[in-house]
Design goal:
The protein is an alpha/beta fold and about 280 residues long. It contains 10 helices and 9 strands. β1 and β2 (about 15-20) form a beta hairpin. It is globular and about 50 Å long. The mean pLDDT is about 95.
Length: about 280
């Protein structure tokens, strides 16, 4: 079934639109945004999937990051899924801001009641890619993925868990070692159960350390603000950096004095990320 258009807006010669569709993977309606640059008039373009952080929606990045300006110049489509199912009726789904609604953590839950609808990994990696390929002028064989915070965790883990699906990956202030993070521990126990062996399969640092060789020889880009209140307790980028060093994965981890965890930080460096992805995806032609 084709997605339902909710709103559309002209933007830098292209169009920013928001959609709703009935998700087979989630079992509920889901929303997503997509920016199509002017180059789609000539045919399919490379596509970037952006995964947002805790409490965010499909609109957050589109309205706050200012990325469409650079996507229009570079000829990149931008897809922004929502961060979780909504109105699922699961007990306690909205009880806290860092678990449940707005906090899907981009994995498929194994624990009841979450396993029925909280299937964000399958939704993005299987369903949403196919949906946008079918209905929009995008080339999913030239797809990249990036994200922020919880979404940075999602971008890194989905890229590592699905080899070949995404040709490029980057992140802003990712939860890079969630088994060491209170956010990650809460989510993993709630969604996956108490067996920590299952947690390591959704931890970017653990996944990278298991790689037999560098999975992204063209490099990974991470930006991290040094005035980020969550840096020491929740994010642990140095652990991911060490895992990359261990397997020879090229990583550019840029640490920025004065920047915090929010969208002023993201807007300051989003051009760099889009240019990074454009260079990687162009080489895949």
């Amino acid at each position: 079934m084709a997605p339902e258009l909710l709103s559309a807006h002209a933007c830098f010669g292209g169009h920013q639109s928001f959609w709703r569709h009935d998700s087979a993977r989630i079992g509920l309606p889901m929303r997503f945004g997509i920016y199509l640059p002017p180059q789609t008039a000539s045919g399919p373009v490379p596509v970037l999937f952006y995964l947002a952080g805790l409490t965010c929606t499909e609109e957050t990045f589109a309205t706050k990051a200012g990325a469409q300006r650079w996507a229009a110049e570079l000829g990149l489509a931008l897809v922004t899924p929502d961060t979780s199912p909504r109105e699922a009726g699961a007990e306690g789904e909205s009880a806290t801001w860092d678990f449940g609604v707005g906090a899907g953590f981009y994995l498929d839950a194994m624990r009841s009641p979450w396993r029925k609808h909280w299937r964000m990994e399958s939704y993005i990696a299987d369903e949403l890619l196919s949906l946008v390929a079918e209905h929009f002028a995008v080339d999913v064989h030239r797809a990249g993925i990036f994200g922020h915070s919880m979404g940075g965790h999602g971008a890194l883990t989905l890229a590592l868990r699905h080899p070949g699906l995404f040709a490029s990956v980057s992140a802003f202030a990712p939860i890079a070692a969630p088994i060491r993070s209170p956010w990650g521990q809460k989510a993993f126990e709630g969604y996956l159960g108490e067996d920590r062996r299952a947690w390591t399969s959704h931890d970017a640092t653990e996944l990278m350390a298991r790689q037999p060789e560098a999975p992204y020889p063209g490099g990974i880009l991470i930006d991290q603000g040094l005035d980020d209140n969550f840096l020491d307790e929740q994010l642990h980028p140095a652990a991911f950096e060490a895992a990359c060093d261990q397997v020879g994965q090229p990583l550019t981890l840029r640490r920025h004095a004065g920047y915090d965890h929010g969208y002023y930080f993201i807007a300051s460096f989003v051009e760099d990320h889009l240019r990074f992805h454009a260079a990687q995806l162009t080489r895949r032609l």
